[in-house]
Amino acid sequence: MATTTPVLDGTYELDRTHSTVQFAVRHAGVSTFRGSFVDFGARLIIEEGVAVLEAGAAVQSISIVDPPEFREHVVQGNDFFAADAHPRIVFESARIDLVEDARSTVYGGLEIRGVRRPVTAMATFTPPTEDPFGNTRIGLAVNATIDRRGWGMDWQLQLPSGGDALGWDVDVSAHLEFTKDV
Predict the structure, then answer these.
(1) How far apart are alpha carbons 91 and 140 in whole angstroms?
(2) In the beta sheet, which residues pair with residue 50?
(3) 113, 81 contact by CB (below 8 A)
(4) How many domains does the chain contain in total?
(5) Structure confidence by residue, pLDDT tens digits, 18-34
(6) What is the extent of the structural domain holding 171?
(7) N or C: which end of the chain has fewer CB within 10 A?
(8) What is the pTM (predicted TM-score) of this model?
(9) What was the pLDDT predicted at 101?
C-alpha cells in the first residue's frame, strides 16, 4: 500500500556530485551502447504539494570521446544533436505525482534539437531525509523510453544480415539527488 508524501513545499537544488543523467540504445543488434552527460542541472520546486521538475543538459558534455569522428557525428552532426544550433537538452515537467517509496509518473515536455515533445516517465521518489550535515535531501529516479525519430534523429544503416544498426528506442534515466534550498 502506497502512502502519500506529506506536503514538501520548497525549492530543492540538484546535488550534481551524487546525480547522473544517462542514455542507452541498442547497437548492431548485439549490445547496448550507454552514455551520459557530465554538464547537467535540475531543480525540483514543490508548492502546495505540486511538484515541478526543471532539468537540462549541455550536449557538448556527452560522454562520447573516441573516436573523435564518432563524437563529431553525434554531437555536431545534423543526424543527431546538431549542438551548434541546439546546445541544450531541456525537460520541464507539467506534473509529478510524488508517492512515498513507490513508482510515480512524471508528465512533461522534452526538448531536443529545438523540438519539444510530450514525454511520460516512470519515477521513484525517495522522501526527505536529513544528511549528517543538517541538509534535507530527497531523491528522484526518472526513467523513460523515447523514439529518437520524434526529435529528428533518424540516422540509420542496415545490417548485412538485416535489421537496424542503431535502435530507434532510447532509454533515458536520471538519478537525481536534491538538497532543500534554505
Answers:
(1) 14
(2) 47
(3) yes
(4) 1
(5) 999 999 999 999 999 99
(6) 3-180
(7) N
(8) 0.89
(9) 58
Grid cell, residue 15, equals: 546535488
What number of residues does the chain have?
A: 182
How many Cα atoms within 13 Å fall on the side-chain side of residue 91?
28
Report the distance separating Cα 95 and Cα 42, nearest Å.
Answer: 15
Report yes or no: 8 and 35 within 8 Å, Cβ to Cβ.
Answer: no
Interval 84-123: pLDDT, tens: 999 999 999 998 876 655 778 999 999 999 999 999 999 9
Return phi, psi of residue 76, to 5°: -95, -25
Cell numbers for 76, please give them: 555536431
DSSP notation for the chain? --EEPPP--EEEEE-GGG-EEEEEEEETTTEEEEEEESSEEEEEEEETTEEEEEEEEEGGGBS--SSHHHHHHHHTSTTTT-TTT--EEEEEEEEE--EETSEEEEEEEEEETTEEEEEEEEEEEEEEEE-TTS-EEEEEEEEEEEEGGGGT-----B-TTSSBSEEEEEEEEEEEEEEE--
Handedness of CA 104, 128, 109, 48 (dihedral sign): positive
The residue with cell 510530450 is 118
